[in-house]
# Entry
Amino acid sequence: MDIVSRVKGILLSPKTEWPVIAGEPATVNSLYTGYAMILAAIPAVCLIIGSVLFGSPKDGLITAIVMYVLGLALLFLQAKVVEAVAPNFGGKADTVAGLKLVMYAATPVWIVGVLYLVPVPAIFGLLALVAMLYGLYLLFLGVRPITNCPEDKSLVLTLVIIGVSIIVYFALIFIVKLIVGIFVDAGGAVVG
# Structure
């Protein structure tokens, strides 16, 4: 399936799209190169363009690169979370299935990233929140067909995936800030 059809399918008819996604053969590489790396570039590129037009190009470039790389890394960590917790709820342990789930559920967040071109933070913030909530709904809809967990456990599995993913996200942010802080302090000590 081409990327435009997949985006339309997952956003406009997710209940019928998830079973199709579940049945498609895929690899981690094919999912990243054929979908995630392309769509994750939308907010990154729009942030760079928006910062050139309305802000600080250097800050926009650095933020976009970090956001892009960490976003792709976080997808893999979330897929591993799905792989680890799904068997506890009757689902299958599978990295590719986990990646399908979290990657396609992230679609609305990537698409709304085009709003980095608009210098109105309130509009962006509101629509980003709506996109995130819709992504969580997509995650819920996809849990059952992708992980094969029983219907009565799909809500709990979704909540566990979200909870553990939030913990992983904040741990990753903490580690990045720690590493950046070490380099900034080391650079300041050398310069000072």
Summary: Residues 89 and 112 are 32 Å apart (CA to CA). Confidence is low (pLDDT under 50) at residues 187-192.
